[in-house]
Write a structure and sequence with these properties.
Layout: H1 9-14, H2 23-43, H3 54-73, H4 81-90, H5 103-120
């Protein structure tokens, strides 16, 4: 299990950046990063616009994703379920909503009742 390739599903689950540890992917990453730096130098862009390596971009993306998950998981308000259940028990049964009658359903129920009555005779 320790020598799984970085592209295997288990390795990607355990270490999402593990794919960049594969020799082929690491070489492609280095080539991509060098091309980005070369383009940055040839265009004469400012120092603050220096390209970020692809592994660092992926690390930042995963960190932002995890931060969003943890922020979304925080409850806005903690409710004690025991108080809520006590309040519901004291208020009595929930009122039933009156539904509109369905004439087609009534016709089918009447037909089934007639068939049952005929079968029971």
């Amino acid at each position: 299990m320790t020598n799984l390739p970085g592209r295997s599903a288990f390795r990607m689950l355990v270490d999402p950046l593990g794919v960049h540890a594969d020799p082929e992917i690491a070489a492609l990453d280095r080539v991509y990063d060098m091309l980005q730096v070369l383009d940055w130098r040839l265009t004469g862009q400012q120092e603050e616009h220096m390209p970020v390596p692809i592994v660092e971009q992926e690390r930042r993306r995963l960190a932002a994703k995890e931060k969003a998950k943890t922020e979304a998981a925080k409850p806005a308000e903690v409710v004690d379920i025991r108080d809520e259940l006590k309040r519901l028990r004291e208020s009595g049964p929930a009122p039933r909503k009156k539904r509109k009658p369905n004439p087609e359903a009534k016709r089918i129920r009447d037909e089934l009742a007639a068939l049952r009555a005929a079968a029971n005779q």
